[in-house]
User: Fold this.
Amino acid sequence: MREILVAGNWKMNGSTAAGEALVDGIIAGVPEGSGFRLLVCPPFPYLASIATKISGSKVSLGAQNVSEHASGAFTGETASAMLKDVGCEYVIVGHSERRAIYGETSEQVAAKFQAAQAAGLIPILCVGETLDEREAGTTQNVIDEQLNAVLNAAGVDVFAAAIIAYEPVWAIGTGKTATPEEAQDVHRHIRARVAERNSDLAEKVQILYGGSMKGDNAPGLLSMPDIDGGLIGGASLKANDFLAIAEAAAQI
Ligand code: PGA
Assistant:
């Protein structure tokens, strides 16, 4: 059985006090049981203080973005080793907001993925199609292009220490969730693509779903055979909303 990961992407929200209160609320309500893990990804300025807060708890720490470079004259950027240094274990790469708003290419995302792994972080590689792409019937091609950028640059073995997140862009922050069947179709496709190169590894790699996941739709999504957790935006900003998804994960 693959472990379930419930990951909160706080995006650019909160403050020192709000972040600490949120994480206190999460830690206080972590469901009993095993087979799942909780992760929070706060904005950069709060990583170090949240790292102290979660120490010894069942909650792990991740960042939302990282530079593809190791160090040097890159004003405003943050290196993987710095994230590791302040207590991160995970980092999200290639979120659709980074791709769409900041123009990150799949090649750049692959470079970030490799830089993160080189520093000992677990990258969470986001892939997903826009509504236009889905309606044009090109969902699988889009996913393949985003996935192949990493597979071709780094090989399949890197997925032994990485996570994939399928996030249909049309479902992010819209309240419109993919149905469990729609999501499962794409998750199955992603796992099959990995299996073409390494079938053992494909069975092990965690594939998260992201896009308006909430306490009420989480049980259906998480019960699908190829959905191994969630990457949660809006519902990760309130402890009770996030814990409702954690509860669903604990029941699987
Ligand atoms: P959402 O965001 O849960 O608010 O749709 C998900 C994400 O962007 O990771």
In short: The chain has one domain: 4-250. The chain has a mean pLDDT of 97.
